[in-house]
Design goal:
2 domains; 32% helix; alpha+beta; 8 helices; 298 residues
């Protein structure tokens, strides 16, 4: 019989009895705290996302019940093989300390999920704990999508407002209302909603110092990607100054490390050709036309 890491090291895995009761509503055979790993998720919120869409507060409340029992997969690939976790508890939370970009109280849908502790899931559990597997995205359907500027249905000929454009200081987006179904939630590399992901609350009592170290390394990785995106954006603006910087950065936010490095290197080479080094001293620039390259030295 396989044992979890906590059992091997003699550390008790503590999960509240009410959580175990909720988990066992979905299990065919009763599970014990030592057999499961639990973690919290921010599934969605009412902030404008990367697609310039946002959920209404009522939609988030409607999704709360719908996501109970839904499974977690990878990259929205609907395959039974990818089912690794299941949501056993949800709640809508309002954060009074945070206001959305359009001035309303920040609301989000929090979920708690469980997965089995076994050899197959050991690597995934480590990735979740370390912050590597963090971002998530949801799959759902809604009955109504409206423009936040005029209130007309999305696609209506009466609405000429463009997503992402600004009208009298208000960013245009589409408001998602009246959810009809919740399909699944997925681990993804880049979620549409910027804050959607695994929250810092884990079951068990793993070594705190190790967790902090791994979280720090994950933060450094995100800082590195941020700098890589900034450098690539600067090169792109030099090469194509007519590009809209906000749109450019939105596109770059969806690229991974290898894609950013490849694109950044190409843009840098192009920028070097467009803006080659020049002499800094005027008299040397004039004399260099008829002299050798030593006149370019400062």
């Amino acid at each position: 019989m396989l044992k979890c890491k906590e059992t091997m090291t003699g550390v008790k895995n503590v999960i509240p009895p009410e959580d175990m009761e909720a988990i066992n509503r979905y299990s065919k055979t009763p599970l014990t705290p030592e057999e499961v790993f639990t973690f919290d998720l921010l599934l969605c919120d009412n902030e404008i996302d990367r697609d310039f869409e946002r959920f209404s507060a009522d939609a988030i409340s409607g999704l709360c019940e719908m996501f109970l029992g839904r499974t977690g997969i990878f990259d929205h690939t609907w395959s039974a093989h990818g089912q690794k976790a299941r949501i056993y508890k949800t709640q809508v939370i309002e954060d009074p300390s945070k206001i959305t970009s359009y001035g309303e109280p920040y609301i989000y849908l929090k979920a708690s999920a469980y997965m089995l502790r076994n050899a197959e899931n050991e690597a995934l559990i480590d990735d979740i704990r370390s912050g590597i597997k963090k971002e998530v995205s949801i799959g759902c359907s809604v009955k109504e999508i409206t423009c936040n500027i005029c209130g007309e249905p999305d696609g209506s000929p009466s609405c000429s407002h463009i997503r992402g454009a600004e009208y009298d200081g208000v960013i245009c987006c589409r408001v998602l209302n009246e959810p009809t179904d919740a399909y699944e939630w997925s681990f993804v590399a880049v979620p549409a909603q910027r804050d959607a992901g695994v929250m810092k609350r884990f079951s068990g009592a793993a070594d705190d110092d190790a967790i902090k170290r791994l979280e720090k390394e994950a933060d450094l990785g995100r800082m590195y990607l941020g700098k890589l995106r900034d450098d690539t954006a600067k090169s792109a603006v030099l090469v194509l100054p007519e590009l809209n910087e906000d749109i450019l950065r939105s596109v770059l936010s969806k690229l991974d490390e290898k894609e950013l490095m490849s694109l950044g290197e190409t843009l840098k080479k192009r920028a070097d050709k467009l803006y080659p080094p020049v002499c800094q001293l005027k008299y040397q620039r004039e004399q260099a036309r008829d002299k050798d390259e030593n006149y370019y030295k400062i």
